[in-house]
Write a structure and sequence with these properties.
It is built from 11 helices and 39 strands. It is α+β, with helices and mostly antiparallel strands. The protein has 3 domains: 4-127, NAD(P)-binding Rossmann-like Domain (Rossmann fold, 3-Layer(aba) Sandwich); 128-363, Dihydrodipicolinate Reductase, domain 2, CATH 3.30.360; 374-644, Beta-galactosidase, Chain A, domain 5 (Distorted Sandwich). A 9-stranded mixed beta sheet has the order 16-15-14-13-7-12-11-10-17, with helices on both faces. Strands 27-28-29-30-39-35-34-33 form an 8-stranded antiparallel beta sheet. Strands 23, 24, 31, 32, 36, 37 and 38 form a 7-stranded antiparallel beta sheet that branches. A hairpin with a 5-residue loop joins β15 and β16. α3 runs parallel beside α4 (104-117). It starts with a strand and ends with a helix.
Length: 645
């Protein structure tokens, strides 16, 4: 049988590996390299043992002239889609290096072209050619570790600074307005994601991404991601290119009665503490040749990588990676003092902890990790969301926004102030939900006053259903002291510019989980006059001075507390003298305002002012807060409030 005619597009970088593989398959009589497409000169020594392939920078013409049956595409990520379309249009099957494309839209475009052409497209996830994958799947199916609780992946490699200067697109998220997405998750450790997803058939429903960089690059070199699958399985991947040396990446499948560890770079599978078993691996080009010649089943057809591309898209759309401060790095230099490498000491242990606990970096008390999503307006960081705070149970742990800042950088929130340690920036807090304290602190007992009770609940983060620079959507579980879910919440938070200021939009919908109505009470409904706090609540800095509160028709705490005005403004002056103004606007259902100015600066919406609120369906409320520099007057506040309403 005649060898399959092959064109290689991209002879440099990872193309060297493919040239060596082509030499092996050429010697075996399976392939013949008939062409090399590259925009840079190809040194003759690179082609030793491969005959005299035609060289060209025009892929379409090269395929047609050489009558190539297979094109190996090893070009920069952002060129994959267009070149794949060219190869398919010229009548060539494809071995497409990972990641398949830079965007999900491009992936869909290539997938449509593959379907219409009737040609094959194999994706270069070499780990998916290993027999270790079906071996692990069989262990799971046979119940070797019981029901699967989750899948964790850990990877820690080292890369020198020169790794990011070897080509113009290295370490870039975008280049010349085109998506590149060359980060640790999507390129070096793309196999980590693809391998983990290959162990299950359930599609990915939601993805949470945390991106960081120690090197001076756009993209991530240290990252964690958590995927929740349709069957409830949690998959986490934690990786870094800033280790002290190469540590072989692995996938660990957590079961109720044991675990399976797959070291996907060496094809080793270990069940619990048994000796590892090494499985053979099929070369993907060899498999593609067998498919073209004999109809063998493709190991990694394009459609099999759609789950990976969903994660790739989540990384592409995520906020830009956060820098890891120099104080947490070890900088290595050469004898001339030039920086050669950045190392995060102990990062190999950190990614292992993530895989073991199925946790993101921000959940592992890492000093350089962000506590949650950062939101930006016009490129400026204006709010940070802590979604899994480490707090005592007596504070009724819950997610919160802090710090929140004006565009001028003035901080307008406070967390755990000495006067009320359970005040947490901007949060949703309710004193009594069917007998559980989701506010924190002591509980008001009729006829007795405030008492410490074992009734504190916790708002637990379940998942982010949207996560972007301008906000997020989140699912929360409101859990009582006994661990049982009382209610489920859907929360949406977004930020947007508003002239010289910006607006924070917070909406929440609460639904009971017990089958019984939710009964919402405040201390006021239990006999404490004026203490109707419970719902949306904003704690401003207690150190602020010259505090003043007003509505369109009232001024001062006594007049505004308990009013049902459509908007309310709170102004003050920061410790450094910088003035600020917050304008709170209720959108939709309107409640009375809970206001404190003299004792401390705080504004909230009172869900239960005089009597309990019984919720038989859903409770939905929305507050938009305008965050402004300067002390705005009543007319200015009225105009801005009208704009957001």
């Amino acid at each position: 049988m005649e060898p399959v005619r092959v064109v290689l597009a991209g002879a440099h970088g990872h193309g060297h590996w493919h040239l060596n593989n082509l030499r092996r398959l050429t010697a075996a009589g399976l392939v013949r390299l008939v062409g090399v497409c590259d925009v840079r000169p190809v040194e003759p020594e690179l082609l030793t043992g491969l005959g005299e392939p035609e060289l060209s920078a025009d892929l379409t013409e090269l395929i047609k002239r050489t009558r190539a049956e297979i094109t190996i595409l090893v070009t920069p990520i952002h060129t994959h889609a267009d070149l794949a379309m060219q190869a398919l249009a010229a009548g060539s099957h494809l071995l497409l290096e990972k990641p398949p494309t830079a965007t999900l839209a491009d992936f869909d475009r290539v997938a449509t072209a593959v379907d219409r052409s009737g040609l094959a497209c194999q994706v270069g996830f070499q780990s998916l050619g290993s027999q270790a994958i079906p071996a692990v799947r069989k262990l799971i199916a046979d119940g070797a570790i019981g029901r699967v609780r989750g899948i964790g992946v850990a990877g820690a490699w080292e890369r020198p600074v020169s790794y990011y200067t070897r080509v113009p697109w290295a370490g870039r998220r975008r280049m010349d307005g085109v998506d590149v997405v060359d980060g640790a998750l999507t390129n070096p450790f793309a196999h980590a994601i693809a391998t983990a997803l290959a162990l299950t058939d359930a599609p990915v429903e939601t993805t949470e991404v945390e991106l960081y960089h120690a090197n001076e690059i756009e993209a991530d070199d240290t990252s964690s991601v958590r995927m929740r699958l349709a069957d409830g399985t949690v998959v986490t991947v934690a990786v870094s290119l800033c280790a002290d040396r190469r540590h072989e990446p692995y996938v660990v499948v957590h079961g109720e009665t044991g675990r399976i560890t797959l070291t996907y770079t060496t094809d080793e599978v270990r069940l619990n503490d048994d000796p590892p078993v090494v499985y053979p691996r099929t070369d993907l080009l060899e498999n593609l040749v067998a498919h073209v010649r004999d109809g063998a089943e493709l190991l990694v057809p394009l459609h099999r990588t759609s789950g990976f591309m969903g994660v790739m898209e989540a990384v592409r759309r995520a906020p830009d990676p956060l820098p890891i401060p120099d104080e947490f790095q070890r900088r290595e230099t050469d004898e001339d003092g030039r920086l050669t490498r950045r190392v995060l000491p102990g990062v190999e242990t950190l990614v292992a902890r993530s895989a073991d606990r199925l946790a993101l970096f921000s959940e592992l008390d890492v000093p350089w990790s962000a506590p949650g999503p950062a939101m930006r307006v016009g490129g400026r960081a204006v709010a940070r969301y802590t979604f899994q705070p480490a707090l005592p149970v007596t504070l009724s742990p819950r997610p919160y926004l802090h710090p929140v800042r004006t565009l001028g950088g003035v901080e307008v929130t406070e967390v755990r102030p000495a006067d009320h340690v359970h005040h947490l920036g901007v949060s949703v807090a309710i004193a009594d939900v069917s007998g559980r304290n989701f506010w924190g602190g002591r509980t008001w007992v009729p006829g007795e006053g405030p008492r410490w009770l074992d009734d504190h609940g916790t708002q637990r983060h379940v998942r982010f259903t949207r996560l972007a620079e301008d906000g997020f959507a989140e699912t929360l579980s409101w859990v009582g002291p006994d661990g049982a879910e009382v209610a489920r919440e859907e929360r949406e938070v977004s930020v947007r510019p508003l002239g010289e200021h910006w607006a924070l939009d917070l909406a929440f919908t609460l639904t009971g989980s017990t089958g019984e109505p939710l009964v919402i009470k405040s201390s006021a409904t239990k006999g404490r006059p004026g203490a109707a706090y419970g719902g949306f609540f904003w704690r401003a800095p207690g150190s602020s001075t010259e505090r003043e509160v007003f509505t369109a028709t009232a001024r001062g705490e006594e007049e505004t507390h308990g009013s049902d005005a459509p908007w309310l403004a709170l102004t003050g002056r920061a410790a450094d003298g910088s003035p600020w103004t917050l304008i709170f606007v209720q959108v939709g259902t309107r409640e009375r305002w809970f206001v404190r100015v003299a004792e401390y600066p705080g504004v909230g919406v009172a869900l239960a002012w005089e009597k309990p609120l019984t919720v038989t369906g859903r409770l939905a409320r929305r507050v938009v807060t305008i965050v402004a520099d300067g002390r705005l007057d009543r007319d200015e506040a009225r105009a801005l409030a009208a704009e957001v309403r």
